[in-house]
Amino acid sequence: MTAWDETQNKITPDLVLHAYRSGIFPMAEHRDDESLFWVDPRKRGILPLDGFHMSRSLAKRIRSYPHAVTIDCDFYGVMDGCADRPDTWINHEIRDLFGALFASGHAHSIELWSGHKLVGGVYGLCLGAAFFGESMFSRSKDASKIALAYLVERLRQGGFTLFDTQFITPHLASLGGVEITRAAYHQALQAALELDADFAAPPLIDAHELLQRRTQTS
Fold first, then answer.
1. How much is the mean pLDDT over the chain?
2. Is the pLDDT of residue 4 over 60?
3. 207 closest CA partner among 147, 157, 135
4. Residues of 98-110 as b/e, b for ≥16 C-beta within 10 angstroms?
5. Are 71 and 126 in contact (CB under 8 A)?
6. Which of 45, 159, 187, 199 is 20 to 30 A from 151 (CA-CA)?
7. Residue 218 confidence class, pLDDT cut points 50, 70, 90
8. Are 34 and 78 in contact (CB under 8 A)?
9. Bigger pLDDT: 160 vs 5
10. Which of 46, 45, 58, 52 is nearest to 156 (CA)?
11. CA distance 150 to 184
12. How far is it, in rounded angstroms, from Cα 148 to Cα 139?
């Protein structure tokens, strides 16, 4: 299913926001595809914010890895990192749309650095108390998992109630991701949209505080 803006003959950022509020999201078939389609999965992936699984090996990696974490410092770098793979649904239109949503304060990224090198990250969209995770990438071992751990804690501290991952992969399942029915997802989404949350407010935390908070809630 594809929806078009009749005056500009293309999908607009406002239309994308309306779609997410309705429980659907856009994708492209591949990076060179010039069209988008809307997706409303029969089974929806979510990551319960109180159910994130941090293994001992991941905790050890966070403790020992010489990383720095930033928020919204290289949004396009994260998007490009996510698209830097043989098969991607992030085409130029998706990049432009989410760039506009980032500029309007709706889209956000978490970046993981090793020195001056961007080695991992995750980006997504915020509406109400719902965070819609779009994609993540890793250029070093466990970098995407580490970025995701920081994201989950940020969502918890910011008052979010729903972390939508769209689909479930073995990678996400190992971190606590689960599938729910479309009806259950839409119910959780509507409840989250009625609440306020703040992605930008929580202060950045370091690895020690992240691990301490995860220990207290596990």
1. 92
2. no
3. 147
4. beebbeeebbbbb
5. no
6. 187
7. low
8. no
9. 160
10. 52
11. 26
12. 14
Strands 130-138, 162-166: parallel, antiparallel or unpaired by DSSP? parallel
**Per-residue pLDDT tens digits for 134-190:** 999 999 999 999 999 999 999 999 999 999 999 999 999 999 999 999 999 999 999
Cα separation of 130 and 59, whole Å?
Answer: 26
Q: Token digits for 115?
A: 């020195």
- Tokens at residue 74, please? 């290289």
| Structural domains present in the chain | 42-217 (3.40.630.70)
Distance separating alpha carbons of residues 166 and 61, to the nearest angstrom: 27
Q: pLDDT tens, 47-58? A: 999 999 999 999
Between the CA of residue 173 and those of 18, 88, 122, what are the distances in Å? 28, 20, 17
